[in-house]
Amino acid sequence: MVGTPVLFIAIPLLAAFLIPLIGMVWKESVRIIPGLVLAYLLVLAINLLSYVTVNGPIVEVIAGWAPPIGINLVFNAFSGFLVTIMVFMGLLVWLYSYRFKSNVEYEAARKYFLLLMMLITGSVGIVLTGDIFNMFVFIEITSISGYALTAFYTGRDSAEASFKYLMMGSIASVMLLLAIMIIYSQLGTLNMADVASKMHLMDPKLKAVSFILFVIALGIEAEVFPLNGWAPDAYAEAPGPVGAAFSGIVVKAGVYALIRYTYTIFDLSGAFNLLIIIGLITLVVAEVAAIRQEKLKRMLAYSSIGQMGLVLVSFGIGTKEGVFAALFIMLNHAIIKPLLFFSGSYLVYHSKKKMISDVDGIGKLAPLTSILFTLGAFAIVGLPPFAGFWSKLSFLMAAADSNMLLVIGLILSVSVVELVYYMRVVNRIFFFKRTTSLLTRRPTFNAYVVMIILGLMILVIGFYPDSVSMYLHNAANSLFDKSQYIHSVLTATIQ
Amino acid sequence: MDSAYFQYLNYAIYGTAVLVMLTGLYAALVKKSLLKIVIGLSIVDSGLNLLIVTLGYLKGGTAPIFSSGYNGTQTMVDPIPQALVLTAIVIGFGVTAVALSLVIRLWRHHHTLYIDEIKNLKW
Hints:
The structure holds 2 protein chains of 2 kinds. Chain A is built from 20 helices and 2 strands. By secondary structure, chain A is mostly helical. The relative contact order of chain A is 0.11. The model of chain A has no long low-confidence stretch (mean pLDDT 87). Chain B is mainly α. Chain B is elongated and about 65 Å long. The interface between A and B is medium-sized, with 31 and 32 residues.
């Protein structure tokens, strides 16, 4: 091993707080340090992921208190897979926003990168931790830096969007803490594995209450309907790369938490049906809302919510194939949605209201950005041979195996809606006459690099889906093997 | 202090904590002024903290600190809820600070604190 899981939390946290200090001496460092940190973490994540594939999960005991007393971090095939995606997306977001405004000043860059590092720390912490209260702390770290990043631009209505997010987030945190305390008062432990192994001792009524509180609280982070009122505004008002970070990193962490509670901690039989129902409602409402949107980023935000609904339905199927499909959708969403946000925010860069109609005929003026946006649109809708096709196919196969024909019918008809609103934008880009006199903005070199990397990944996964399916299978197996999770945590010793 | 009395006292404290939480929730959801909403949110936090500390209390328990005067026979209250509440207070403080700074930003932008007049985004 080259490192331990705690580095994923310690290094970015340390870097976040050192950025302002080092920045006093060398101003350029506030931009460079986050990149170095994230690149190192990506290497570490890939190394640990291949180590875990061979040798089984790594359970790290923090501060010398063995589980179930102390806090522990679990890096197994499932959490490791998500951490790798998150760190990779974090690196791309960093590269994209390295100079995402030509007149970027030191003061703004310092705050932006500090908050971005905190956001990544919190999200990675949610995925790695094995302690429910520790997860609460990481959720709060993520949310608070999310509020601040949403309000980053002072000119727009971003403070309003951020306040909305903050209100929902702080009510969610109260519910989360209440649910945690119900579990603690019943079982006397906060360790996830220990809670999971003692869950049968809990009073069924209190169990149901705390599960519902968890679903509501985490649903706000995971953008589940009707708790996602903050998301479209936050995506639309936040800077472009922050929208990408939300959809590529934060939402993944929220879904992870929800899934960890449903699959590992609680043993409620109705929980899977609940996931399917809230997932379907989220999907249908979000896609119908997306088709009505007139602003590009709000449309993308609703589409992002819809994808998360699809992920929840897929997790709710409750079979290994379902989990495989859900992880595949999450991976694809983490690649495709940032591409759409990156290219989309350049398409409407100079437009004040960011309307969809402002992209009319921009295909001739900014061909590469438009083509990349179109690639993302095709991929997320699920057209072959792009990445989204395979995830949707594996989802439909998983649903068919479980005889969920109604779900399949609904998903397919919603996909048509999705196709309509994406093709509407693509149609406007290439076949409409340019009516506005808005200038186009050439993406920076870094932005081109990031978008082309994402575009290539869409094609690679599209043509060679086997290149990722091994990791997805391992992750799905590790999520299903609850007894191994409990065993590996509770027998962990101090290294 | 007999045990029935202690039980009633416990229920009374639980009830108070829940009441404080509901008061805060009412303020956060019904009031129109942004400042009152922020105050409401922090009242909810306080109620929850009270509830959590009460959960860890034992009859006749002392502070969970090993000091020279401790003879090993007294019961101690559960230290974990207290540690959790300390964390929750710090987090609540941070959220309130961010919320207030957003309120200042909204004031500068709109020159009002009434949410009915701040409607550029759909609420």
